[in-house]
Design a protein that fits this description.
This protein is mainly beta. 4% of the residues lie in helices and 53% in strands.
Length: 502
Amino acid sequence: MRNKHNLHSILTLLIASTLSGVTTMANSKEAITIYSSAQPGSISPNSYRPVPGQHFGNYKVPGYAVIKTTQQHNIKKGRNQLEINNVAALLDPTTVSFRSLTDPEAHVLEQNYQFDLVSQQKLLQRYLGKTILVEQVQGNDTNTIEGELISAAGGLVLEDKRGNVHSINNYSNIKFPQLPGGLRTKPTLVWDLNATRPGKHDIELSYQTEGMTWWSDYNVTYSEDNNCQLDLSAWVSIINQSGASYNDAKLKLIAGDVNRAQPPSAVRRNQVVYEKAAMADGAGFEEKSFFEYHLYTLGRPATLPDNSTKQLELFPAVKAIDCNKELVFDASSQYGYGGLNTNQNYGRNTQSDVNVYLRFNNSEDNNMGMPLPAGRIRVNQKDTDGSLEFIGEDIIDHTPKDEDVLIKMGNAFDIKGERKQIDYRVNTKARTMSESFEITLKNHKAEDAKVVIRETLYRWSQWEIGRKSHDFTKQDARHIHFDVKVPANGEVTVNYTVNYSW
């Protein structure tokens, strides 16, 4: 077998060498607060699940976490060297905080973060010019070659005591006399610590680490049995690619846009494992306001293995949420406002689909009333055979209680619209301009349809509506709405004129 070494032999050497200088730790208690910098719905499943034949090693997790642990260590009075090797590989050493609950006077004089992790290639580089032992399997026999390592590029080149040079491409085992200084099996914090009390110390350690994030997903079941109702469930997904595992930790999630000056971080490769958490009996997330954000605390311990994705229920499923289905014809929204525009052909004729939305109010009266973190919301509808069919999805922003949630579902199949300019006049000397439109909606359904025609007044900021065939409502400085009913298998036409002046 090409370029294979005896992993057991090397690991035995490494473990023995590494443990010889490490203070034993016991009774570790961990708490994790995770912050997300991901845009809602922006995380591809390929970044957190294994894909056969593909490797997404350059993926950078859009978030970070604050890790807090309470550990117990045996410390002598005076100067100590304390090594902590159960930390995240992507920790930021400048954020490390140390406090001894046993000895408030204890403090760290110097800190080193050692992350030069051992590998076969690094061992070979460290042993250039030194003696190693290489074993080759030849049939039922094992051939052993001992000599000075001259080269490790494209195979091994050894010179034995007799001066013979051996070029070795196929080997089964490499034996190194010892682990070279400076190499670690795990990322390690090394503290030069001064203490005034000897004995067991309860030490609080906290730091920030990259490689962790979270996001929320919402699953909705839509029903028209009672006009418009929704059942909603919410899940939290957590990525841990920090280089450390966390067992039975207290878990908190921060929802909100937390400002942070992020330093550049190195890209590293990960082999990601997908894990869907079983919902054990116990408390779910408890939400509360925290500064200008919202904090979600899981009421039971959580285990987050390294290179894993875990899913947890954000809150129990909510049923019978009243909603409204809205049909909107918004053909003019594609024309943006960029100052005075007197070009007659701008927005002259437009054909467009009628958009379909679902809207519900996030209030206690509507069985909701909890802050909703930003995330992807997927909607399904039950068919007559009982199966759930996917009918649309959208991204929602952070939504406080008592605010509306608007879900864009797609385009109506049986309702079409057309918008065309029927008159245009401009008088640059008088600084006036008028424009008339005819908007036609056709309904091919067997029942009447209510449609909102949303018009963007994009030519100038000072305007008034002149002639009109239907009443309208002014939404803001740029938009007006016409609420119309389109008869079954029929059509309706809306005409209006807008007068601009500057």
